[in-house]
Structures are given as structure tokens and as C-alpha cells.
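Researcher: Structure for this, please.
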Amino acid sequence: MINEIKVFVPAHITGFFEIIPNNNPYLKGSKGAGITLDDGVITHTKISDGTGNINIYTNNKKEVLNTISLKTIEIIKKKYNLNLSSYDITINHESKLPISAGFGTSAGFALGISFTLPVLLGINITYKQAGEIAHLAEISQSSGLGDVISEIYGGCVIRLKEGAPSYGVIDKIPITRPIYVITKTIGLLETSEIIENPLHQKRINKSGSILLKRILTNPHITNFIKLSRIFANDTQLINSELQEILEILDEESIGSSMAMLGNTAFALSYTPDTSIEKTNITKINTTGIKYLQK
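Model: Predicted structure, C-alpha cell format:
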């Protein structure tokens, strides 16, 4: 039996979205559009004979409050009726991206576990089945609505139908040349505080439903960033500091907007050049989730 495995999950920035509620967590989610990044989360999971110890780390630091990881393990145990008391499990998530800043890191953590732990336990599982586990964990924590399915497949993803990967429907905008993604994070934003707020929900859904139709009439990356900025303005989530950064990025790139949901500015560009200091610069990922060799 394999005793350790690594997987890479690309980060995901949502440009615009519409919240679709449902009492069934498999069917709850969002429609909209976003991009995945060549930066993301690498999850290294190890399993050995033991006494039921589960240790979770982020960037090699012990995590006691990583609720999304613990919830994902709980869902796996329940789904497959597992008793893990005879194993020791060590999970380390590696990421240079900030958490709660609009990069879909919670989905990355959940997917990192759902794509590694079942395999190490000898469970045969498909991509969509692993994605369902991560989606359920995300919904239960109100930490995301559409990151999971986007991160599995990669690219500039249009989410046409909400829900877990077995129920959701996606399409993609072709990426025909390398496109850089320049991001600047100025603070954190708790996703649950936005998606569970009725006023924010109303603004989000009114704008998101219109923009989804508009991206389908002109599915191009330049239209994606243009519509993302309209959404950010419509939802009134941009603060004055972020607005100043966006205005500079607009002059230097194809266009810019606010990552949904995070206090992060992002711009798309054909070059990695920017005058903004302390940015993170990567490219749009087109491969989605992938296992890594040791």
C-alpha cells in the first residue's frame, strides 16, 4: 500500500458569481466565472500504522484550527464507514498564498485531502467523487461555493450550473497564450460574512446573473476581466485602498478587479511587469489538479 502521496491544487480567483441556495448540500453552490493559478496548495499526506493520531500542518506549522481539513477527514470517515484508530495520519498543506484573501485556499485544503487520503486507505475514487467530498466540506463551513469544481479542472472556468462536481456543469474560455496574473492582497475577508449576509446576497445575485449571460455572448479573457470589474463595482465591496491599486493596475495590464471574496486586487497581463510593490505574480493554470511525483 502506498504510504504517502502529494497533490497540487491550483488556487482559484472568482471574478463574478451568483449564489444558488439549496437545502441539499450537493446541489447548493454558485454560478459564475473565475481563473485558476499556477500557484496554489500542495498537500502531502502520509499514513502509517499507529494509534489514531491525526496531525495537520500548514507550511510545516502545526494547525489546530484548520476546520476545513478536519471536516474533510470527517466526511471521508462517514462516507466510507472508516475506523482510523489503527493509523497515524500526517497532512501538510504548502502554500505561499494568504488564507481568506480570495484564492480558494480552503477548497485547496479540502481537495488536497480528498484526493490523497482515500487513495492511501486503498479506496478507489474518481475525480468527481473526491470533488464531492471537498464540496460538502466547503458548504458545511460556508467557506466557498464554486472553488472546488474550478480547481479540479483549471483554466478560465465558467460555472454554468451550481453544485458538487457530479451535479455542476462547467465550460471554459480558451487560453491561447500565457497570461500573467498579478495580485496584491491588503487584508483578509471572511467569505461566510459576505455570502450569508442578505444585503450582499441581493447585490451579488442581481449582478452575477446578468454577467453570466454576458460572458457567454463573448467568451474571451478580456471580457472576463471587464465583467469582473463591473461585478466588483455593483456589489460595492471595493474599499478606497483597493480602488487606488486597481486604478494603477488598469494602466499596466489588460484589466483588473477584486478577487471574490477577498481583499485582493488581481490583474491580467501579457507581461509580468508592474509598479505595485510586494505583489504575487503567477500565470493562469490550464491543467487543474494533478498528482506530484516524489
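Researcher: Any notable elements?
Model: The two ends are 16 Å apart (CA to CA). Residues 198-217 form the longest helix (20 residues).
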